[in-house]
Amino acid sequence: MATYGLTIPAIRGTQGSRVFYATNLPNEALRNYFGAVEPAVEKSQRPLDPNHAKKIERYIIENQTEYVLGALTYSANHEGQFTATGTENSGFELGDLTFPPGTIFKSLDGQHRREAVLNASSDSDVIAKDSIAVLIYVEPEVVKRRQMFSDMNSTPKKVSKSLNVTFDSRDPFAMGAKSIITKHPMLIDRIEEFGPRVRADSTDFFTLSSIQDTLKKLFVGSVGRVKDPSMYPETRIVTRGVQFFDILQKARSEYTEATKSHGDLIRLREETILFSSTTLRALAGAVFKAMEYYDVGDLSAIETKLVNAIMSIDFSVNSPLFIDSGFISSGSPTPSARNQEVQAATNAIFKVLQDGTGTLNDRDKKSIRSRG
User: Which 8-state DSSP code applies to residue 316?
Assistant: First the structure.
């Protein structure tokens, strides 16, 4: 968008051959200078996703005293007038930056944060008076701006979900997961808390993020979503989670056998799908359906029934139950993580929990696949 003139305190620096400025603006000032969304033909970043912006907005509103947002990054079509107010130090200068009327800014990174901040500022005077860091690169050419966007997004390393859970002190399911893995005997010292997956040579059973996901599925089903985590008290989450893992440990001797030696664990990983986080998700979803079916709010009320039923299920890599439901291919220890197959496996497990049989007739198979 073209401005009517802008003067701000800033730090001037260089990266390669480009001049850039680092500054800070009140949130309410963003609308005046950086509030427009560029036409698609002129864009130098991904399309705006309103749902993603709304998610960030909710995060800001719900955490007004502690929210954290990274800097917004823009390009300007020419250098501004920079008047140094201090001496140059280590490659940057502090001063006053003025962009004359007609300067055009283009978004390079942070458009969803910008949209969220603008909307949140409209709803909250407190947030409107907060500020956000802004980086402005001098780059008038769209081809080069698009290369900048590509460069910025080609180097960051994505943080694993487990590490996010480890550091999260706000989400009750994250807190519940961290609590359970320190107190349940099946999980103590058997959880990968930082990495994105369990390594083949690891003695761990599951990742921390899969434990968090399992706890969620115990409340919303295998393909359901927790829309508002604050509605679920941590104590309730921990109680149900402990009961669920109690049932698994009693029903499946594989988890105890896997602790005897590393070799036993490696063998069991090849013979059974019980050490897959996707299987854990399907099991949790089936238990959720069973709680609804038996109309109970506490797993202890149906523990014996569930233990006996889960004990009877064939979780081997050649299980007809899971092959017929499309959850695994014959001989494969890796189930499909697609929602359709996970739901089919959930329904197949639930049938056993419901009536105690592990047999699927042709009508059952057709029903399971269609409901996926």
Answer: B
369 vs 340: CA distance, rounded Å? 8
HSE at residue 100, side-chain half, CA atoms within 13 A, is: 5
Instruction: Please tell me whether residues 255 and 366 are part of one structural domain.
Output: yes
User: Backbone dihedral region of 150: left (phi > 0), alpha (psi from -120 to 50 degrees) or beta?
Assistant: alpha
3-state SS record for 147-211: HHHHHHHHCCCCCCHHHHHHHCCCCHHHHHHHHHCCCCCCCCCCEECCCCCCCCCCCCCEEHHHH
| Residue 1 is assigned to a structural domain of this protein | no
127 and 167 in a single domain? The answer is: no
Question: Model's pTM, two decimal places?
Answer: 0.76
**Cα–Cα distance measured from residue 121 to residue 56, given in angstroms and rounded to the nearest whole number:** 13
In a domain, 69, yes or no: yes
Q: For residue 136, what are the CA distances in angstroms to 26, 40, 266, 276, 338?
A: 16, 20, 53, 46, 41
Residue-level pLDDT, tens digit, the chain, 372 residues: 445 567 889 999 989 989 999 999 888 888 777 766 555 445 666 778 889 999 999 999 999 999 999 999 999 888 888 988 866 666 678 899 998 888 888 888 888 999 999 999 998 889 999 999 999 999 989 889 889 888 888 877 777 889 889 999 999 999 999 999 999 999 999 999 998 899 988 999 999 999 999 999 999 999 889 988 889 999 999 999 999 999 999 999 999 999 999 999 999 999 999 999 999 999 999 999 999 999 998 999 999 999 999 999 999 999 999 999 999 999 999 999 999 999 999 999 999 998 765 444 454 445 444 443
265 and 322 co-located in one domain: yes
Specify whether 279 is located in the same domain as 185. Answer: yes
Q: Is 309 within the bounds of a domain?
A: yes
Same domain, 128 and 208: no
Angle at 3 between CA 49 and CA 116, to 5 degrees: 25
Structure tokens at 309: 């039923």
My answer on whether 224 and 321 are in the same domain is: yes
Domain that holds residue 166: 161-371
Cα–Cα distance list, 21 to 33, 137, 360 (Å): 15, 6, 66
